[in-house]
C-alpha cells in the first residue's frame, strides 16, 4: 500500500451542498429499507410469510430472510465495486439506488403465504437478495462521494454524512410504521402489543411503497453529480484497473481483512440495538422466553429518543476523528463498547429509566463508532480499487456481524432464560476482535486519496531511505 502523503485534498468537483445531500440521501434510503424490513420482520412477516405453530420458529425464519440479504451484499460489493472503479462513482450509484428502490417497492405488493403459498415466501427471499445485492454497492459509493470531494482536514467530517443516513432512515421508517399503527389501531380489548388486523392486512405495505418517492428524489440528486477529481485523474492517467477485485485481493489483502474486523463491533452493536432490541422490548414478561413487555408504540418511541443521540454523536465523531485520528478515536470507543456489553443487564434491571439509559448509551456509542468509518475504510485503499476494497470490507463484515447477529442473540437470549446478559457478553467479545484489528492497523488521517500524490510520497520515502525508485 502506498505510504501516506501530506493529506492535501484536490479541488472538489462538486459543490459542497450537492456532495453532502447526494451521499446522505442514498444511505438514508438504504437504512430506511433495512429498518422497514427489520420492523416488518418482527411485527408481521412471521405470520404473513412464515406460518408456524411455534412463534420463535416463525421469527427465526423471518430473520433468516433478513440475513440472506447480508450474504448477497458482498456479491453486490464486488459487482458494483468493479463498475465504480472502472466506469465511475456516479453511474454506479444511480444503478445501485434504482435496483434497491425497485426491490423495496415490489416487497410492498407481494402476495402473502395465504394467497400464494411458498411462492410468496420465495418472492420475498428474491426481493431481499436483490436489496442486499444493490446495498452492497451503495454504502461505499456514497462514502467515496463524500470523502473524495472533502476539503483538506475535513474528510472524517464529510464521511459522517453518509453515516447519518442510518439514524435518519430509522426515524423515517419507524415513524411511518408508528403513523400507520395510529391510523389503524387495534380493536378494543385486543392485545396492544400486537398490530391491528388492518395493519396486518395492508397497512404494513405503505412504508415499502413510499420508498419509491425517496428513491426518485435520490436519483434526481445523484444525476447532477460529476466525478470526483481524484477518480478523473486516475482515469486520465490510465490508472483504472481492468480487474479491481484481483488487484485489491492480491495487493491489499491485509487492508481487506483489517477493514472487515474494524467494522465488526459496529455491525454487531447496530443490529443488537435495532432488530434484537425491538424483539426483546416487545416480548411479554410472561412469555416462554420473557422480554421487557412494552407495547410497540411505547418501545419504538423510546428507541427513537435513543436514535437522536445516534445522529448527534455520528456528526460529533467526525471532528474528533479529524483532530485525533480515526484509529485513536475508534480504539477508545471500542473499549467503551466492551464495557457497555458487560453492564448491559444491570442497566435494563433498573426499570424503564434504565432501559432508556441502555438505549441512549447504546445508540451514542453506535454514532461514535459508525461515524469515522465513512472516512477510514475508503482511506485504506488507493483510488483505482477504493470502491471495491471499501465495499468488500464493509459488506463482508455485514455477514460476520449482522447476518448471524439475530440468530446468535435469540439463542443467547433463550440460553439466559430471558435475561440478555449473554447477548451483552457476545457484543463485548466482538469488540475485542475489533480492538485487535485497530491495534494491528495504522492511522489513515494523513493518507492521500489521490493515487499520484500517494505514489510521489512513496517514491520520496524510498529515496530518503536510500532505495532506488522504479
Automatic annotation (TrEMBL):
Biased amino acid composition, Basic and acidic residues: 450-462
Transmembrane segments: 58-80, 92-110, 116-135, 164-184, 204-221, 256-276, 296-317, 329-347, 353-371, 392-413, 419-440
Listed CDD domains: MFS_ShiA_like (cd17369)
Membrane topology: Multi-pass membrane protein
Keywords: Cell membrane, Membrane, Transmembrane, Transmembrane helix, Transport
Superkingdom of origin organism: Bacteria
Domain Major facilitator superfamily (MFS) profile span(s) in chain numbering: 19-445
Region annotation (Disordered) ranges: 450-470
Cellular compartment(s): Cell membrane
InterPro entries: MFS, MFS_dom, MFS_trans_sf, Sugar_transporter_CS
Chief location bin: membrane
PANTHER family: INNER MEMBRANE METABOLITE TRANSPORT PROTEIN YHJE (PTHR43045:SF2), SHIKIMATE TRANSPORTER (PTHR43045)
Record protein name field: MFS transporter
Source species of the chain: Streptomyces tibetensis
